[in-house]
Every structure is written in C-alpha cells, then in structure tokens.
Specification:
By secondary structure, this protein is mainly alpha-helical. Helix content is 46%, strand content 6%. Strands 1-2-3 form a three-stranded antiparallel β-sheet, with no helix packed on it. The radius of gyration is 34 Å and the shape is elongated. About 8% of the residues have low confidence.
Length: 223
C-alpha cells in the first residue's frame, strides 16, 4: 500500500509489549502466601484482655461503696505479696484462704460498730449491743448516748451479710484468688463472675434502700 503524506493517526497501546518479562512486578515473593484466617492475632488478644479487666473494674467499682475502706485496702495490699510468683502452692492457697477469712470477718464485724461525738469534740467508737453502745475505751468521763439507734437491730445483721457478699464478689473477680481457691475451673469462674458482681450490686442497692444504714462505724459511712 502507498504511504499517505497527510496527517496520520497513530494508536498507542497502553500495555507494554510482552518480551518475556512479567507484565508487572510485585514486592511479594512468589512463594509467600496471604495470612490465613485462623492465624492467632496477638494484638486482638491483648485488647480483649484489657477490655475484660476494664469491664471487671467497672463492675466492682460500685460495690466498693458498701465495704469498710480499711478492709478493701488491706486486701489489695496484701494479695500481691502472697501471689508474687504467680504459682499457687499449698502455702499460697492457705494464705489466700486466711486473707479471705480475715477480710470477711472484718466486713462483718465493722458493721456492728458505731460512734458519737462527745462534748469535748472527740469521736468515740464502740460496739453495738442490745443494751446500747459499748465504748472501746472504758472509763471515759463522757456520757455514752443511750438512744434507740445505738442498740443492736435487725438492720445491722442485714448490712453485715451484704458487706460480706460484696467483698466476696470483689475478691472472686480477681483471677489470683480464683486460680488458687478454684484451680482448674477458670472458664467456669469467668462465666460466673461475668454477671455475679452486677447481681450482687443490684440486690445490695435494693436492700440498702429498704434497710438504710445509720451507723458511723469504723470505716463505714452512713448512706
């Protein structure tokens, strides 16, 4: 065919000619394969653990208002020293049981204490009995009040039992306690403690509305 001198239209092909080389290069080696769906994601596990800890703290933070302040502080300070190596030996388990027993006893006992302010401005504490307030410091020159509110009543037992239940909910929310007290039942305890602190908080809140606390005992504030 004759070549025309006029304006010609040349069509360019966007794809380069295949001269034996691959049409594109990749930074991924041919032998590498995409990550499998079942591969463990450590970052996701860490986020799940942190979320679980935060959820546990949010559940138990409201329950701390029902406890004597000294009891919960003592428990949080002594427990790390008992469980310092992360292994539940026979001695560790015995010490954890002793710590739980002492803390429960203090929660029960402190709800039977009350106080009053004397004419000298000092605060005197005592133990509530059916006859009245038995002051811890005998022989004082201040007259002990004899009002009805300083006598032992049914409300005192209700508050004492609720305080023990609240402490149990907070204590068993800690894996260091459940691992030693209930070894081999971690999954079962996780399921139980998922809702137990919330249930205890709801029940105790309702009971405190029915039986309001009027004591200003050791570590206990009136609500």
């Amino acid at each position: 065919m004759d070549q025309n001198d006029g304006i010609g239209i040349r069509i360019y092909n966007a794809a380069p000619e295949n001269d034996g080389a691959p049409p594109y290069s990749s930074d991924i080696p041919p032998s590498s394969s995409p990550p499998q769906a079942g591969a463990p994601d450590h970052g996701r596990k860490r986020r799940a653990v942190a979320k679980g800890v935060q959820k546990t703290l949010s559940k138990t933070s409201m329950l701390a208002n029902f406890l004597p302040t000294g009891t919960l502080l003592t428990f949080e300070m002594v427990l790390p020293s008992i469980y310092h190596n992360g292994v539940c030996t026979a001695v560790t388990t015995m010490m954890v049981h002793a710590l739980l027993g002492l803390c429960c006893l203090s929660c029960f006992f402190f709800h039977f204490t009350d106080s009053f302010r004397g004419p000298d401005g000092k605060i005197y504490y005592g133990f509530v009995t059916h006859k009245g307030l038995a002051v811890f410091k005998p022989g004082i020159d201040v007259a002990v009040p004899r009002e009805e509110r300083y006598k032992l009543g049914f409300n005192d037992f209700v508050h004492a039992m609720m305080s023990v239940m609240v402490f149990a909910a907070i204590a068993f929310s800690d894996h260091r306690v459940t691992d030693c007290v209930f070894p081999g039942h971690q999954k079962d305890m996780d399921e139980v403690m998922e809702s137990f602190p919330i249930m205890v908080g709801i029940v105790c809140s309702a009971l405190f509305l029915v039986f309001p606390n009027t004591r200003y005992g050791i570590g206990c504030m009136a609500t």
